[in-house]
Amino acid sequence: MKKAAFIGTGNMGSALIKAACRALGPDQVVVANRTFEKAEELAREIGCQAVRTNQEAAAAGEYVFLCVKPKLIHGVLEELSGALMDRVVVSVAAGVLLADLESWTGERVPVLRIMPNTPCAIGAGMTALSGGKTAKEKHFTDVEDILAQTGRVERIEEGLMDAFSAVAGCGPAFIYPYIEALADGGVAAGLPRSKALVYAAQMTLGAASMVLESGAHPGKLKDDVCSPGGSTIAGVAELERHGLRAAAIDAVLAAWQKNGQLGK
Ligand SMILES: NC(=O)C1=CN([C@@H]2O[C@H](COP(=O)(O)OP(=O)(O)OC[C@H]3O[C@@H](n4cnc5c(N)ncnc54)[C@H](OP(=O)(O)O)[C@@H]3O)[C@@H](O)[C@H]2O)C=CC1
Ligand SMILES: O=C(O)[C@@H]1CCC=N1
């Protein structure tokens, strides 16, 4: 028996599969995907095993990670009915509740929900996890051991999962356009495109690291950059004039509301 089976090798599945291979060794990981060739190609690249059906994957792995779209989770679990004895189900799907997962698997199957993000692919992710009624401490720690390879991991109450998803799961897509736009500004001011992107991305990484490592409020860190009468405050005033903060808050709230509907 292998330690982890993954169903779905798309954007999120493949990032987690790579993390699991680093954590457990590729010989402990089995993967399945609707389009088998994609699972096969990934397995060839990283040395784990690809199988043709979801049933075969669940038969081979103790922790069964469901990495398909939220609307497909119920169907995949129906397909796996009878194959989940002594298995632990780990769902990656946004908006699909633990109570629904438990009712679809049968309550004796321990169930966990995780919410990773795409930076997990390079070990810089932020992932939350919550457990269902029969999830034991060992199930949490086994999954945390795998996720440790993806970046930062935190247990949270399930009631906060949609909000967490909006900030950390969807959040990369709120930052990339900003980095792109900063680079556009740099290009408009005369920088070569390739350089402008590197400068904007490295600056974003550094600014985020300052928040995490200093523990200082972002407002204070912003103030530290703004010399009186200087260039930064002139730029900050433009961001405020264009409603940057309101746009960011509204983006998170729109994603939060949508997360709540995805599992329905
Ligand atoms: N993308 C993200 O940033 C995040 C996504 N999530 C969650 O991860 C899940 C997957 O999203 P994402 O990776 O982006 O989506 P993708 O579309 O990239 O991947 C979904 C994968 O599921 C496969 N698939 C579909 N149906 C089945 C099936 N019946 N059996 C086996 N495999 C199947 C698809 O196969 P095929 O190759 O045939 O299309 C595809 O490879 C979602 O539930 C989402 O909510 C969570 C956090 C972040
Ligand atoms: O866009 C989505 O639905 C998923 C949820 C979190 C990130 N991507």
What would the keywords be for this entry?
binds (2S)-3,4-dihydro-2H-pyrrole-2-carboxylic acid, binds NADPH dihydro-nicotinamide-adenine-dinucleotide phosphate, 264 residues, alpha/beta, 2 domains, Rossmann fold, 55% helix
Can you describe what's shown?
The chain has 264 residues and is of the alpha/beta class. The chain has 2 domains: 2-160, Rossmann fold (3-Layer(aba) Sandwich), CATH 3.40.50; 172-262, ProC C-terminal domain-like fold (Orthogonal Bundle), CATH 1.10.3730. The protein contains 12 helices and 8 strands. The chain has an 8-stranded mixed β-sheet with strand order 3-2-1-4-5-6-7-8, with helices on both faces. Strand 5 (88-91), helix 5 (98-105) and strand 6 (111-115) form a beta-alpha-beta unit. Helix 7 (161-169) crosses helix 12 (244-262). The longest helix has 22 residues, at 193-214. It starts with a strand and ends with a helix. The model has no long low-confidence stretch (mean pLDDT 96).
